[in-house]
């Protein structure tokens, strides 16, 4: 039995369409989200997170424990930029808590929760 070598194909810049279609958070957006995550983790509310970069959306999922269901999902969908806004916060049950054009405004939904936790 002759083993054939595995051929690896490199993506050539400009030709790999899957990478071009992937939505991501840019550095300032991710910095703002991770700052919020750090504050909530320090308060003991959040314990883990996951990042998903898909073709239509980028999602930052927050977990209280290492479980299958995220507590909150912070999403970015550029295709909704002209309508409701490209950023949203979705609760565990799928309810959209806040949607908007600016990430800072959307993340303010967590300010009340953080103040409540710190006040205890």
Strand content: 15-25%
Order of helices and strands: HHEEEEEHH
Number of helices: 4
- Report the end-to-end length measured between terminal Cα atoms: 69 Å
Q: Can you give the helix content as a percent range? A: 25-40%
From the helix content, strand content and strand pairing, which structural class follows? Answer: alpha+beta
Number of strands: 5
Low-confidence stretches: none
Q: Kindly report the oligomeric state of this protein.
A: single chain
Radius of gyration: 18 Å
Biggest β-sheet: strands ordered side by side in the sheet: 1-2-3-4-5
Tell me the number of structural domains: 1
Write down the overall mean pLDDT.
Answer: 81
Overall 3D geometry? globular
Main β-sheet, in a few words? 5 strands, antiparallel
What does this structure look like?
This protein is α+β, with helices and mostly antiparallel strands. It has one domain (18-109). Helix content is 28%, strand content 22%. It contains four helices and five strands. It has helices spanning 17-20, 27-42, 103-107, 111-119; strands at residues 48-53, 58-63, 72-76, 87-91, 96-100. It has a five-stranded antiparallel beta sheet with strand order 1-2-3-4-5. β1 (48-53) and β2 (58-63) form a beta hairpin. The protein is globular. The protein starts with 16 loop residues before the first helix and ends with a helix. The mean pLDDT is 81.
């Amino acid at each position: 039995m002759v083993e054939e070598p595995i051929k690896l194909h490199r993506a050539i810049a400009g030709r790999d369409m899957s990478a071009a279609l992937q939505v991501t958070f840019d550095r300032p957006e991710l910095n703002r989200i991770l700052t919020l995550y750090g504050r909530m983790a320090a308060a003991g509310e959040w314990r883990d997170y996951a990042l998903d970069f898909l073709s239509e959306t980028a999602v930052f999922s927050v977990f209280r424990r290492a479980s299958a269901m995220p507590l909150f999902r912070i999403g970015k969908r550029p295709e909704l930029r002209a309508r409701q806004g490209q950023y949203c916060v979705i609760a565990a049950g799928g309810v959209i808590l806040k949607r908007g054009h600016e990430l800072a405004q959307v993340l303010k939904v967590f300010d009340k929760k953080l103040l409540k936790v710190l006040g205890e």
